[in-house]
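Hey, I'm writing a tutorial for new members on how sequence and structure tokens pair up, and I'd like a real worked example in the thread rather than a made-up one. If someone can provide the structure for the chain below, I'll link this post from the tutorial.
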Amino acid sequence: MAKTSLEKSHSKASNFKLTMICALLSISISLIWVGLIFIEKNKPLGISISAASAVVALFSFFLIGRFTR
């Protein structure tokens, strides 16, 4: 039997992909704050963590924008 569009859009694979993208975004935004805190102790490390996390966060925003169910 063919799946309906609702069944396809709410499949386990689709839900898993969206969950992983959101988890990646959440972790990367948290790491931006960790990097900002590290700037006080170790400036190069803090800037590196913040910059890398910001790139990952922007990439995650892009993935969420392109995600279709």
